[in-house]
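We emphasize that the prediction below concerns an isolated chain of 366 residues; any contacts that depend on oligomerization or on bound cofactors are therefore not represented. The input was used exactly as deposited, without trimming of termini.
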Amino acid sequence: MNNTRGAPTPAPAPRSAGEQRVYTVDVTVSPQEDDMIESLERRWDAQVGRVIPIPPSSPVGTGDYRIRIRHSKIDDAVVEDLYSESIVGGTGGRFEHLNDRVVVHIGRRGTWRFTRSGERGDVTEMARNQFVARRNDPSWDFGIGPRTRSTVLILPTADLGSLFTDRAIVGTTESADLRLLMAHVTAVQQSLNDLSPAAVTAARNALVELTRAVVSGEGPDPSEPRLAAALADAARSLADSLLTDADLSPNILANELHVSLRTLQRAFATTGESASSYIRRRRLAQAHQQLTTGIGTGSSISELAARYHFADASHFVRAFKREYGEPPSRVARRTPEPEPQRVLGRVDQTMVSPDRRATGAGRDRR
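Result of the prediction step, given as a token string:
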């Protein structure tokens, strides 16, 4: 099912001028339908018009054609979160939206296979936890494995093209540089429609610089002020995943992100909060959540203090009270007891006291 529709018309103006920058398309076409091409185009246009060009592609095997794209436009750059079933296609063709662009595929699940169009026939494969970066000139053919998820960055060649030869660059998503890049991507996606034009430009510039660090292998330039916000976002995200780790510290964050402690501290200075203060505040927030939701029911104040690595219970209580205006014991007292478990619509009698079981049995006899 090669898509052969004509060249796209200009994209429509956003619904709220200057605000809408994120679009989503989710299309499934069954091979049992009489005309899959027309059905695909009709459903695609109904969702996003020509904002996201339809990739020239076709399904593999007898399954449905399924593709879902979350398209985020960041000035002249694009980030796409993509899910697909088994399809094959190409990055060239008459749509030209990828012609002479730098394209970075970041694998989350499944596989991609790229083949250089024309006589060369170079093949590059990408699995989960890998990335493939290439300059799309000339175009490449691709194959996507079943249930594949990936993030795709589409970036201007003027800024990054000099880093590439005619071959793709392959690397791991486990590197500190890639982790920093993805933290920035996530932060921008979450707020993109609300950003001012100046903030969008700044986000775009940081995206380009972080991609340069990944592709070149040289790491981010610590003197580049446009990277401070991205570095702080990445450090916060990493800290949140390590709150119960006894070794968590600003030094650990700096080492994991492949930057100096001084660079990390300068990045946090732009947020108005130090790295140490952020770690402490997030640990207190986790303890507070456990107390208010009942998740921590059964945990003593001393156990919470130890879990989040305060010197002792008294230090934890003082810090908690400064943050929330009351001691943790008062928060715990307000938290309701968990509901009794129910089995097949009836109260599980093992969760009820002997006196209540006897009373309930008497009512049943009456």
